[in-house]
Amino acid sequence: MHVKWIEVTGLRGFTGPCRIQFGIPNGETGSGLTVIVGPNNAGKSTVIEALRALSKPSPPSFSEGQRNVKAGSRVEIRVCNSEDITKEIRTTEAGGSETEWVNPGAWPPPSQIFVLPSRRTFQPFFGKSLLTREQFVTAYGLPPVRGQPIDHFSGRIFQMQANRDAFDRVLGRVLRPLPDWRIELADNGTYYLKFDFWGQCHNSDGAGDGLVSLLFIVDALYDSQPGSIIAIDEPELSLHPSLQRKLADLIAEYAKDRQIVLATHSPYFVDWAWVVAGARIARLVRESSGLVSYQLTDKYLKRIEGLRRNLNNPHILGLDARGVFFLEDNVILVEGQEDVICYRQIAQQLQIDLPGEFYGWGVGGAHNMRIIAGVLNELGFKKVVGLLDNNHRAECDLLSEEFPGYRFMTIPADDVRSKPEIKARDPVYGLLDEDGTLRDHYRAQMTEIFRSINSYLSPDATR
How does pLDDT run across 351-403, given as a tens digit for each residue? Predict the structure, then answer.
């Protein structure tokens, strides 16, 4: 059994209700992932916090600062499982900080949900205890304020040492070489972690934030069972990009038969191969009505799979393109890689700043612009501009009709730059001459186009 969706109302920024569909594991790499993206202060950590509330055997208390006034200072967190049975935590009839379970016996049980906040720290000197996974989930409370050290993690450290081989096998998938680590006893009677790097030793107080974060994440994975639910807020924190890539691949492998929820600002944790396999991307944004979630439907999955298999243009859905998930808005779509470079040159020559970001290295041709625009539309992007060559006027008209809220326009030439004649192609007379300079007779038209883009993308423009 799996979780189909979670719905949050009244918790922090969620006026609500705001629903997020979960990825359902099907045996394919990444299929069980739910990746929550969006700008800062858009509610990503709050969704992780809501899952943490659901992992408590007793109904949690929510402080006044955690409850949204516009929602009547009442909190409601609902989950629905694959049998369409819901359970929820909600503020009691009396109101205030206290909550109650509704249908508490429904799946998932609280012990099934393992949650890691973004601020992953523990006391470097600790007492001795040994906690199983279920005991740790039960003991790990819901703090009234964020940023506190994670309670009882020392019990998991002793558990790691008791299962050293299994833990190190998973840690070694990300971190090479593995440090030689052990639990040591200080003369004052407290315990600490000792790390040995080729004879250079330090205790857990001197461990880097990235290493500490990895210990928490690997601990959440290595003794989990198929069917588990694991939520990790900002898995990328303090990690070098090479480690982010390895960790993302490791998490995607575990998501073959587990549900893993990630709130992230890193493009390494968003991969279109996982989406095609069944993963869900949820983009949270703050609008006048409150926090809103946008998710891709199945409408574009087959088209995305076609782009993913485009060996001639692998950049269409590459790492640079994935950066679009982390833009607030104002996306500029262009046909190809050279367009990204040349339009920047033109803007510089005209001394005009474009208040938008180009989508990756282009969409791989005018015929792909409809797919990318559709994806952005479903993910809630309000302001998108598309620039096409003059010989694609018909496509421009179709795009404008299908996406009336976006702006599509053609340039006054059949290409952005001039190209010499070759056997397979006539010469192309572009906006830029052979030296990369904007031709004089195009300056007025391109100035008008760029000013039109600026006007549309301006924060003061009417959407």
Answer: 999 889 999 999 999 999 999 999 999 999 999 999 999 999 999 999 999 99
- Per the prediction, the chain carries an average pLDDT of 90
Mean pLDDT calculated for residue range 448-455: 91
- In the three-class reduction of DSSP (H, G, I as helix; E, B as strand; rest coil), residue 246 is classed as helix
- Tokens in use for 178? 């593995």
Instruction: Tokens 């009691």: give the residue.
Output: 92
Q: How far apart are CA 15 and CA 354, in angstroms?
A: 34
Nearest Cα residue to 4 out of 85, 103, 70: 85
* Domains of the chain (ranges, CATH numbers): 3-295 (3.40.50.300), 310-457 (3.40.50)
End-to-end CA distance of the chain: 42
- Amino acid making up residue 287: E
- List phi, psi (to 5°) of 409: -150, 155
* Residue 172, CA atoms < 13 Å, CB-side half-sphere: 10
Beta bridge partners of 409: 387
Contact 13, 286 (CB under 8 A): yes
Which tokens go with 341? Answer: 């470079």
Q: Contact 68/13 with Cβ under 8 angstroms?
A: yes
CA distance 306 to 327: 24
Q: In terms of Cα–Cα distance, which of 168, 17, 178, 166 is closest to 88?
A: 17
Say if CB 359 and CB 373 are below 8 A apart.
no
Q: Residue 308: phi, psi to the nearest 5?
A: -65, -30
The predicted-structure confidence for 198-233, as pLDDT tens digits, reads as follows: 777 777 776 788 888 999 999 999 999 999 999 999
Strand partners, 293: 284
pLDDT in tens, 117-154: 988 888 888 899 888 888 888 877 666 566 677 778 88
Residue 120 · residue 82 · CB < 8 Å: no
Total-model pTM = 0.89
Q: Which two tokens stand for residue 410?
A: 């053609």
Tell me the CA distances in angstroms from 13 to 7, 10, 43, 142, 285, one per residue in order. Answer: 13, 7, 6, 18, 11
In angstroms, the CA 103 to CA 106 distance is 6
3-state secondary structure 420-435: CCECCECCECCCECCC
Within 10 angstroms of residue 102's Cβ, the number of other Cβ atoms is 14
DSSP single-letter state for residue 23: P
What Rg do the C-alpha atoms of the chain give, in angstroms?
A: 26
At 42 the three-state DSSP class reads: coil
Structure tokens, 37: 């993206």
pLDDT at 25 over 60: yes
